[in-house]
Amino acid sequence: MDVQTTESIPQKSLQVLLAGTIDYAGLFPPSQISMPEAVINYATYKNSNYEWLLGRFIVPLGRLEEFFESARDFISRDGKSAWRISVIAGEDINDTIRQIEEFNGNNAPGVICDAIELKASTGSKIENTVSALPPGINAYFELPLVDDLDDLVSALAFTGQRAKIRTGGVTTDAFPTARQIIRFARTCLAANVPFKATAGLHHPLRCFRPLTYAPDSPEGAMHGFLNVFLMTGFAREGFRTMLLEDLMEEEYEEAFQFDENGVTWHEHRLSQAQLERTRTNGIISFGSCSFDEPIADLRQFGLL
After folding, report:
1. Which of the residues in the chain have pLDDT under 70?
2. Domain of 43, in residue numbers
3. Exposed (0-12), middle (13-18) or buried (19+): which is 17, by Cβ within 10 Å?
4. What pLDDT, on the 0 to 100 scale, is given for residue 8?
5. Distance between CA atoms of residues 171 and 194, nearest Å
6. Sign of the CA dihedral running 303, 253, 25, 160
7. The CATH number of the domain where 240 resides is what?
8. Does the residue 2 lie in any domain?
9. Helices then strands (H, E): number in the chain?
10. Which of 44, 137, 49 is nearest to 89 (CA)?
11. C-beta separation of 286 from 198 below 8 A
12. What average pLDDT is seen over the chain?
């Protein structure tokens, strides 16, 4: 936990692209730290100069009470700077919703669960979940990258819910290809379904790194969150697949130029308005077990 406290004045376009994007998943691999440590980290991030990058705290349903016991002393009672959390749903969606409603009823407005995340491989799973959702809670459905992805995304479009893609893990085979991520993003954009990413996006740009923090960790190519977010923006503008693949594989920070009015990658550009639409109707956030690593890399690139 080494978030810097020096003044940070990023370019407006970077703020538009990345505001509220990092959903903190410190409880999950490869970090997998204790609940008290994860809560203290999140409280620190919320009081740092980089709070504008911070999204929700990710917690499994079965650890909701443990979370609150660790967080109660850090949470404002009057709802100022409320903590937003996203719950990884249990097997029984009705029980999940019951526990979330009870949690919100007991602990709002200082902390509130306004999102759930779960896997879905069929349209019926999506429909059954949505029918149980109360107002004010969005569901992110992690979808398999299969041939009938279009049908699953269409089910989300029909129900007004959101998608989720797993972009990595702790083994090399957990990482989808750039083309698979592009297809997922394009499918969601075509159906006007916002989405989030999770896992493997600790660093802004594509890189070859250890996949865990263990001394004997396997190494592999990791996708970058700037690559994924900007690819989504260019995909939204209709850029061809070959160019989007090149963007997903870009490893050099010098190739990106952020200014007050937009961002340029080589000779290609997204305006601030296009970035805003990318975030509103495209990619919402990404889950990361580290908040420090994304910040450290962005600082190293001179973006923060």
Report:
1. 1-8, 79
2. 12-298
3. buried
4. 56
5. 27
6. positive
7. 3.20.20
8. no
9. 11, 13
10. 137
11. yes
12. 94
